[in-house]
Amino acid sequence: MGRQKERILIVDDEEDICDLIFRLLEKEGFSPIVAHNGFTALEMIRLGMPDLMITDVRMPGMSGMELLKQARSLDTNLPVIMITAWGGIDGAVEAVKLGAFDYVEKPFNFQDFLSKIRKALEDRRPSLAKRTFCDENQNAAILRLQEMMGPSDAVTKIVGEIALVAPSNFSVIIQGETGTGKELVARAIHDASQRAQAQMVPVDCGAIPETLFESELFGYEKGAFTGANAAKPGKFELAAGGTLFLDEIRNMPLGSQIKLLRAIQEKSFFRVGGKKPVTVDVRILIATNEDLNIGVRNGSFCRDLFYRLSEFTITIPPLRGRKEDILHIANRILEATNIELGKQVKGFSPSASDTVVNHAWPGNVRELRSAVRRAVLQARDFIDPDHLGLEDTLTDGCENNSDSMESILETGLSFKELVRRSTTEIERRILEEALRKTGGNKAKAARLLQIDYTTIHAKIKQYRINTEDN
Ligand SMILES: Nc1ncnc2c1ncn2[C@@H]1O[C@H](COP(=O)(O)OP(=O)(O)OP(=O)(O)O)[C@@H](O)[C@H]1O
């Protein structure tokens, strides 16, 4: 095992500066993390992520001074280095009085900057020595996830939640639209946990009929039923010491849900045809496209199972709600596809970037991935909007011609999901049109559509439609 990398939090609203310091620190063998505002930084400190913080004094919202005060009250041992504008010595003196370890002036002298960082970390070292191998693993897994999912505050929040919950044995519900990366998040929780050395076993709950549920999950003994020529362990046993990832749990038949609940509660089960109970230590992660509360309310999801599973919930917002991540992910997919296809596509033209950022991505990253891969295949130097082939997908048209149907199928969504998405899209457009007709007056729009005010208000919020008062 090599030297443990110190985690250095860079806080600055200017992305270029963050980028510059990030690259410098990475090159010097540190493990940098970034927050673009004080609130996100405090969240990371609350989770015990950084060993040192570097923050600009001047930032919109929470100033560097305010951040310093609050950070020191959360972690009195956290060394803080302030970045001040050239000649901003008064602020620097005040910062040191407030407990900052030191300050650097812009423009940086990098050697001086690095030696201050190293000195500050010396102070912190005794607490670093206590860190376990597991912390190293955890750090690597969650940083990898942030790099994959993007720089938005929503992703930073998810990463913080993973850091918090991964070391525990809590069951976690991972909720998000199809293609948002729920399996990726589950994988990061597993990799960042003490169970990382054992397996994470995925189970597609919707794909197992109720009659096969027990044998798939709990295994069977030889002769348990016709065709059981040899004993076979189930998914629970395969995940022993590790994690069982139950994907699309909403599609699990009710009868199977009850059997699952019993196994979780009793921490043991019988193989089909088995006489002895099998006890295994398994952590359970769940993915769902829909709020499980809805299933509980309409009786299609077992209430007790829901209570047992919902120890912690992570919600992944859809791509269209975190536009900062879209180009980041698109560029990563572009680079990977370049390597796969032996091409050298340089990037997205300005109009293609606009198209990518403004598309609604109903199939989320899965759809983005298909579009970018298709575009890289066709492009020479830069990707143009035509290469993406997005004109006819669900955002821009639900016309019933064969071309648009072809691109709808390329979203990779199931039939059920496609129908739901199309209905949702039509609903959104009707609302937009009604609001346009009534000059944005929600009460009038509600009357026009013959729905009540609470419903229209909720739908406007759900679809994030811009009206003057929201
Ligand atoms: N940030 C990302 N960068 C690159 N590829 C990604 C990213 N997130 C997800 N993907 C890819 O998108 C596809 C969907 O991801 P994943 O299966 O994790 O989503 P999901 O939310 O579990 O979807 P579903 O609800 O349909 O099961 C996978 O092929 C995955 O590799």
UniProtKB/TrEMBL annotation:
Annotated ranges, domain Response regulatory: 7-121
Keywords, sorted A to Z: ATP-binding, DNA-binding, Nucleotide-binding, Phosphoprotein, Transcription, Transcription regulation, Two-component regulatory system
GO terms of biological process kind: phosphorelay signal transduction system; regulation of DNA-templated transcription
One Pfam family of this chain: AAA_lid_14
UniProt xrefs under SUPFAM superfamilies: CheY-like, Homeodomain-like, P-loop containing nucleoside triphosphate hydrolases
Signal peptide from the UniProt entry: none
A GO molecular-function annotation: ATP binding
Domain Sigma-54 factor interaction per the UniProt entry, residue ranges: 148-377
Top-level lineage group: Bacteria
Modified residues (4-aspartylphosphate): 56
Descriptive protein name: Response regulator with CheY-like receiver, AAA-type ATPase, and DNA-binding domains
Species of origin: Desulfomonile tiedjei (strain ATCC 49306 / DSM 6799 / DCB-1)
